[in-house]
Specification:
about 120 residues; about 50% helix; 4 helices; mainly alpha; single chain; elongated
Length: about 120
């Protein structure tokens, strides 16, 4: 069958269904809503992790300092030790949960080279 000005008909002689134009604004809004939802879920889960490990007993400044020291640490063996300890915690190891927040390795838990903030006493 022939078409009209570039249009072709289907086998049954009808025009093909036209596609609806995309609503980019609605799609963008849906993506933004999903991103906000994921960010909120991540923050909730991190808060739950802090509580589950017992780190909520630390002061905010101490917790922030510990996390910053961990981020700044480039020692792969230390990071691997932390990873193993974290994996044991999540696998429900009683020993790992009981010792959460305690340094069982005999060394400082995060970074022995970290400098104390000015005005605060360092290790003697």
């Amino acid at each position: 069958m022939g078409g009209i000005a570039g249009w072709s008909f289907t086998d049954n002689g009808r025009m093909p269904d036209m596609r609806k134009p995309r609503d980019y604004d609605a799609e963008l809004q849906a993506l933004n809503d999903k991103a906000k939802q994921l960010k909120s879920r991540k923050q909730t889960q991190l808060g739950e992790l802090v509580i589950a490990t017992g780190a909520d007993a630390l002061g905010t400044e101490i917790l922030a300092g510990v996390l910053l020291a961990a981020i700044g640490n480039d020692d792969p063996s230390r990071k691997e030790a932390w990873r193993k300890r974290g994996a044991a915690f999540f696998q429900g190891s009683t020993t790992a949960r009981r010792s959460a927040g305690k340094d069982t390795g005999g060394t400082q838990a995060i970074d022995s080279g970290a400098q104390p903030a000015s005005g605060t006493p360092g290790p003697a």
